[in-house]
Amino acid sequence: MTVIEARGLRKAFGTTIALDGIDLRVEEGRILGVIGPNGAGKTTALNAIVGLTPYHGELRVLGRDPWTERDQLMRDVCFITDVAVLPRWIRVSQALDYVAGVHPRFDRAKAEGFLAKTNIRSTSKVRELSKGMVAQLHLAVVMAIDAKLLVLDEPTLGLDILYRKQFYDSLLNDYFDGKRTIVVTTHQVEEMQNVLTDVMFINRGRIVLNCSMEEFELRFLEVTVHPEQVAAARALEPIHERQVFGRSILLFDRVDRNQLAAFGDLRTPTIADLFVAVMDNQSSPPQAAAQGTYQGAAR
Amino acid sequence: MNTPSNVMPESSVESQAIARAHVPATRRMYWSIRRELWEYRSIYVAPLAAAAVFLFGFLIALPHHMHGVKTLDQAHEALDTPYELAAGLIMGTAFIVGIFYSLDALYGERRDRSILFWKSLPVSDLTTVLSKLTIPLIILPFLSFAIAVATQFVMLLLSSVALLGSGQNIGAFWAHMSFFHMSLMLLYHIVTVHGLWYAPLYGWLLLVSAWAPRAPFIWAFLPPFVIWGLEKIVFQTSHFLAMLQYRLTGPEPSSAAAPHGTVMEIISALTLAQFLTTPGLWIGLIIAAAFLFAAVRLRRYRGPI
Lengths: 299, 305
Fold this sequence. Notes:
- The complex is a heterodimer.
- Chain A is an alpha/beta fold.
- Chain A has helices at 42-49, 70-73, 92-102, 108-116, 131-143, 161-175, 189-192, 213-219, 230-234, 257-261, 271-283, 285-288, and strands at residues 2-13, 16-27, 31-35, 56-61, 77-81, 149-153, 181-185, 198-203, 206-212, 220-225, 240-244, 247-253, 264-267.
- In chain A, helix 4 packs antiparallel against helix 5 (131-143) and helix 5 (131-143) runs parallel beside helix 6 (161-175).
């Protein structure tokens, strides 16, 4: 089942183009990481998906138009945009009461079960909790909702590494069951690498890479090239080159593994490595032509 | 709702899930209103505090008040005034709370970014705005009515005890007070004036609250001021001011003098039929509906600030 389907999604704020024709299709059971520099349009795209912002183009989320049918859509979609959006005056017990009151798919016992594993007391007010605890509370509420799609926009921004790790661990262990779909943006790319099933790079309102992690591992290879073979390796048109301790590390896309093995040590790049490479290319015009291979080449 | 699903057999979980997939609109409304009462505790604290302060003052002034009671043939106001004053004070407090509440209702959630949380739940903008309108239009008036009646009742008891203490006949006093009639008049005033007549005022405040990028208080009160000033300069008239005055003081002819002090007299001057046929009432309700419609639309577009 297709959970999100977008065609020609556009959005401008005045003269600033936030989304410049996004085509996107997210199937059920995927965990998609949306990665991009600040101001790339990630948040705008996610806001359009959860009905927070109007847009041009076609967008269907679980078969609905998110802008006009937000309230019905929210029965099956959950989102956390930004940390600490829970109202500061609310008590933990009141938050659970309210969500239980208005949400048909909220399982209060489940939420209390999650909270029992934390130091959050049900009589506390949100303003008395630390930032990490507020994130835990919000996650506990969201995970107790039997939703089909969960959208997370920088859900762990500003949290320390312990909370971040715990956040993604519980998301994977207690929530994700292979049927739900998760779309997440984050700047902590490294921490997400093992969680994602798909990755999407977005820059200046356009998708510059969109592929599954299996495909990612097949396509991209990083070679630490022996100094004497650099010229030969460069002939194979690496998409990026960087120097580490005086040695050249070349990043290749869709080049035969055996061919590359002759030049030096091979490894699969991290998402962060590839992200830096792609963004570097995007910002330097001479190489931009070579980027044609990325535009929508993925799926 | 809260049954742990793991103890249920699979099929029953399924059917339960389908049955649960719909929450009646009334229930969403109920919880939305409760939510407002959690956030703005002044809705009930302020009128209660006003009642407490008034009762304290009444207790101190009781000996003096009793003097009036002893000579029943004295002017009828000497008796009724403190009761009207109590109702006026409590309702006036509720009115002020209603103004500040309405200005913050759709602005506060944007300022503290919690709108991102509320919008992540299956509650429509219409339900949210209506639940927030309920507070100044229904909850506050009826709450202040209940508190006012309770306060008046306590006053009556205190007076009776004082009378008994001084060996007077309380039967005549009770007969004179007509407590039930007083409450009924108060209820009539609350429903007609606070519930219906003031609806466009609250609609305007909610609209400003939904729209204002900052300082909703200024945005709410500056435009009327500017319109009044412009009209004065350009046309040398003040129809707008007269219109506002009419809206604030109500359709009653004698009300301009003292809107709250002489509640009973104002109301008795106007029958329900007269009130319902006042064009101003219906024009006001139409304007209120337009303001609310705009506020609902705006909330959809508005994000955190």
